[in-house]
Amino acid sequence: MIRPGQSVLEVRHLRKKIGRRWIIEDVTFNVLAGEIFGFLGPNGAGKTTTIRMLVDLIKPTKGTIEICGYDVRRQPEQALARIGAIVENPEVYPYLTGWENLEQFARMLPGVDAARIQEVVELVRLDQRIHDKVRTYSLGMRQRLGIAQALLGRPKLLILDEPTNGLDPKGIKEMRDFIRRLAEQGMAVFVSSHLLSEIQLLCDRVAIISSGRVLAVGCVDELIANQSNYVVWEAEPRVRVVELLKRSGIPIIPQPEAVLDDSVMAGIAPDAVICQMESSRMADFVESFTAEGLRIQSVYKLNPTLEQLFLEMTEGETIE
Ligand SMILES: Nc1ncnc2c1ncn2[C@@H]1O[C@H](COP(=O)(O)OP(=O)(O)OP(=O)(O)O)[C@@H](O)[C@H]1O
């Protein structure tokens, strides 16, 4: 029995060498029961390679992966029985109905009967169309059928590679709500995505991966709060603001539009000065600016989005 908050997936110091290259250099994280965990990284960061090791499609060069305490390499049967995964395109037969597809798949799983199939069909809300041929399904419905397949064996951990890829906004929202329901029922859900805003909306915790290394792991809000040290000064004269900040060794962001979202930039006065400073130092600077005769219209801390945090950490590597 897995309790909420108990570790379901433990990945420790995972490394993978292909040919002469270390594709994965050092990846460590865990995923807890009842949480949605995001795996974020730019193109080529190593997400797919990591996922392929999680489901035992390829072998790690170093490091360990445990699922509910079972080592994926040494106890693959026990470990893999506890994972439901959609990695690469799930195999579905378009000329069969959704139900027939699930029946086919269930044959490989011990203890999965018609009642269980009906249960997952209701869970993914396909009951209205489950007896129609899959070729008549929308992409979102096919995706949900894939998830139904992955859920048949009552996994403790669900691994989804880019689950909202190709879906329209309505489909994305449905998928998000659905993933949340699964986590609420106690499942651990691991989601890889390049859609940062999506991860920010969906996930409880996130690992940021770049060039085969995990750069940060944590609660999305905490990561953002720790990283957020951008302070905006709307004060006059501007040259004096820059001068005084520089004199105190405070770095000024020369091109804020390169690191901040357009939506964030739109809310900032065009002649504002944006610098990096601990917010605890703001009050002292307000005092000294006032003493120097500067007029301060406003001063505030920016809350970066996950996207900015990510760009900072990966030093502007392009995201897919
Ligand atoms: N079999 C392989 N042989 C050689 N290089 C590989 C192999 N598989 C992956 N790579 C390389 O390893 C790096 C990581 O690839 P991976 O597919 O894991 O990244 P990713 O984060 O999933 O990116 P994407 O989202 O583009 O798939 C890339 O530079 C890729 O070219």
From TrEMBL:
It comes from Paenibacillus yonginensis. Residues 9-236 form the ABC transporter domain. This is ABC transporter ATP-binding protein. GO terms for molecular function: ATP binding; ATP hydrolysis activity. The keyword Transport applies. InterPro entries: AAA+_ATPase (IPR003593), ABC_transporter-like_ATP-bd (IPR003439), ABC_transporter-like_CS (IPR017871), P-loop_NTPase (IPR027417). Keywords: ATP-binding, Nucleotide-binding, Transport. Belongs to the ABC transporter superfamily. SUPFAM superfamilies: P-loop containing nucleoside triphosphate hydrolases. The keyword Manganese does not apply. PANTHER family: ABC TRANSPORTER, ATP-BINDING PROTEIN.
